Amino acid sequence: MSLSFVGRTPWRPPHDSVPYLVIGALGGVVTVDHPGKSPTPAAGVAILLDDYRTVSSDRFGRYRFEDVPTGAHRVRIDPRHLPVDFADGDYRTETATVELHRTARADFSIRAAAAIAGHVEAPKGIRLSEVVVRVEPGGRYTFVDENGVFRMEGVPEGDYQVKVDTAGAGEPIAPVATQTVALRAEEPASFRFELQRAVKELPIRSLPVGSN
Description:
Immunoglobulin-like; four-stranded antiparallel sheet; mainly beta; five-stranded mixed sheet
């Protein structure tokens, strides 16, 4: 396409392969979902368009791609560049159709990241470094260190059960109660677990009736 203007520099399309008459824009808003609260804007979240263009949401959670060719496009949150304030997750991919000189819209929600930490106490001889702390739902887990300390970050806000897996402790351990938590980003959760060796039951010898 040849453009000719008198007295000023002709405008050219931003991409040589995309005629200026067949482009539009794509934008939307990214919000943080909080359990039991209203959503808030999510700033600094990278949005990926067709796996090659990226923009970040502003302080109001807004993002926008200019000069997008008309037609269907894939847009999603880019998990490779999430700020630490937000939790990793299986964020969906949206398909947005851009029309001539119009702005298509695709909104996203994301979850805030929270932390779980605590301490596991145990008698001497128990292999604490082989004890695992599990968080359900979600299948998240972390190992306890040799001092009994554990920490898990990047857990999405929500309601969870936290339990200790002692299968690798090296000896039988008495059952440990599962603890529950309503996990919130502004209130890191702290736990304390105490392990005890399982009591071995001695066999009971039955005697015939009437015997001395």
